[in-house]
Every structure is written in C-alpha cells, then in structure tokens.
C-alpha cells in the first residue's frame, strides 16, 4: 500500500511540476516507447549478465512481498516467544527427550501446531528444530551452538543481501543507460541537420527524454525498492536472532520465563511487546 502511494506521490509531483511550468507531455509520451526499449531493455540485459540465475530468481521472489505490509509484527513475535516458552517449559518439566518427536516431525507436532503463524513458517521451524535437535543430542555446548547459529544467520543475511545488491547495481546503471539513449538521439538528430529548426528541436527534446527517464527510473523507482528489500531482510534476520537468544539463555540455565525475556530485549522497539503484554500472552497460550 505504502509503495503504491509513494510512487503516486513521486511521479505525480514530478510530472505535475513539469505540466505546471508549461511542459508538453506529448513530447515525453511520443518518445517513451523507444527510450524505454533502449533503457529498460539494456539494463535488463546487463542485469542478467551481471547476476547468477539464483540471484535473479531471488530478486524476482522478493518483489511480491515488497508490495505487502511487513509480516514481522508484535503479534508474530509474541507468538514465537510463546512457542519457545512452551518448548522450554516442556524440556524443564519432562526432560530433553520429551521433545524428540516434536523435533523430528514438526509438521505433525501438536506443540508447534498450536502456533499457526510461526509454526507453519518453514524457515523458522527448521531453524528452531535444528538447534533443539543438537540440544537433545547433548554433544555440543552453548558456545559451540552459538557459533553455529551466528554462522547460519550470517549466511542467511549474505544470501539475502545478494539480491539487494543486485537491485542497487541496477539502479546505479540506469542513469548511464539513459545517457546512452540520449546520445543515440543526438546522433540521430545530427544526421538530420538539414531539417527545419522546429523538427530538430523536437528530435533533441526526444533525445533528452532518455536522460530524464534513466535518472527517474534509477532514483524514483528501482533504488527505493532496493532499500525496502534491505529493510525486510533485516527484519527476517531479527527473528532468527530472537530464537538464538532464547535458546542460548535456556542452555545457560535460565528459566523459560527469563529466557523469553532475553529474546524480548533483542527486538526493535517498534515491535517489542512490554513485559506485561508478553507475560499475559504466554499465560493465555
């Protein structure tokens, strides 16, 4: 919703100011198809050359969620910590082996099934169950598991950042492709130097549209999407950090109530529930 509103404000103000100053939109509309072919087509081709197929696929996969609101809300984090609390409470009362079946088959687990938002998120459940499985095995201490968690979170972040960097590079290249389109327009104009001034003026105007479009697409369309992708990536990483903090606190001997408080403190202030809110939610669950 906010992405659409942002684009409307951006493009509306730019073209509105142009029209108010007496600009002729027909010049831009007339040049738009060919200039867009040169700029967007050239940028797309360079984008495919510059990135591996897995990066291209990652970029395409992230476009859909960009136009939706963030799924990482206060309610989601409270559900995550309530789920972790119940897991740790079960371990505390019945021992580590009591969660073995839940860990081995999380999709059919009654425990994880009580929390549909995070319990059906493949990435979260896989992260949680992998390290619970290591805790059950008892072969690794807290410091070794923390190192593994940090490595996995770093890998997740770098993998997601590859798509963000690809979009940033695309945004940086678009003004140059706009210049390429403009130069071609100037070359075309110089080849028609015998035409009347009115015709030459129109041709030069069409050529300059290429520069305008390249800069507009870069800083008004593509670069903001890259920045939004980066923010959403950070939110996804934060969820893993909450899980890491809670599980490590439990391994170091803290009670489940204290362990989830450790996790609560990791959250950004905009999504962090108060102590009372989290306690009430956990008791209700």
Relevant terms:
285 residues; 82% helix; 12 helices; elongated; mainly alpha
Describe it for me?
This protein has 285 residues and is mainly α. The protein has one domain. 82% of the residues lie in helices and 0% in strands. It has twelve helices and no strands. It has helices spanning 2-20, 25-50, 53-66, 74-94, 100-104, 110-113, 116-119, 122-137, 142-190, 197-251, 256-266, 275-284. Helix 3 crosses helix 9 (142-190). The radius of gyration is 27 Å and the shape is elongated.
Shape: elongated
In whole angstroms, the N-to-C terminal distance is 32 Å
Structural class designation:
mainly alpha
Order of helices and strands: HHHHHHHHHHHH
Care to count the β-strands? 0
What is the mean pLDDT? 88
Pfam families: MotA_ExbB, MotA_N
Domain MotA/TolQ/ExbB proton channel: 127-239
Main location: membrane
Subcellular location: Cell inner membrane
Write the layout of secondary structure elements.
Layout: H1 2-20, H2 25-50, H3 53-66, H4 74-94, H5 100-104, H6 110-113, H7 116-119, H8 122-137, H9 142-190, H10 197-251, H11 256-266, H12 275-284
């Amino acid at each position: 919703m906010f992405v659409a509103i942002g684009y409307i404000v951006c493009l509306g103000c730019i073209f509105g100011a142009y029209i108010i100053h007496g600009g002729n939109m027909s010049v831009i509309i007339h040049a738009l198809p060919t200039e867009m072919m040169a700029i967007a087509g050239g940028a797309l081709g360079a984008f495919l050359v510059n990135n591996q197929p897995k990066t291209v696929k990652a970029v395409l996969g992230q476009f859909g969620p960009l136009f939706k609101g963030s799924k990482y809300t206060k309610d989601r984090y409270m559900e995550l910590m309530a789920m972790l609390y119940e897991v740790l409470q079960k371990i505390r009362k019945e021992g580590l082996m009591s969660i073995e079946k839940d860990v081995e088959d999380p999709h059919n687990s009654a425990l994880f099934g009580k929390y549909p938002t995070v319990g059906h998120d493949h990435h979260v459940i896989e992260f949680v169950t992998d390290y619970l499985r290591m805790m059950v095995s008892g072969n690794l201490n807290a410091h070794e598991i923390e190192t593994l968690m940090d490595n996995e979170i770093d890998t997740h972040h770098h993998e997601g950042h590859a798509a963000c960097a690809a979009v940033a590079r695309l945004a940086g290249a678009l003004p140059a492709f706009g210049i390429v389109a403009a130069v071609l327009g100037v070359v075309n104009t110089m080849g028609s130097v015998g035409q009347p001034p009115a015709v030459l003026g129109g041709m030069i105007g069409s050529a300059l549209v290429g520069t305008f479009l390249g800069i507009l697409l870069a800083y008004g369309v593509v670069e903001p999407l890259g920045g939004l992708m980066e923010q959403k990536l950070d939110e996804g990483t934060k969820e893993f950090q909450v899980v890491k903090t809670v599980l490590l606190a439990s391994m170091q001997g803290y009670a489940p109530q204290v362990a989830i408080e450790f996790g609560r403190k990791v959250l950004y202030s905009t999504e962090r529930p108060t102590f009372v809110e989290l306690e009430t939610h956990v008791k209700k669950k």
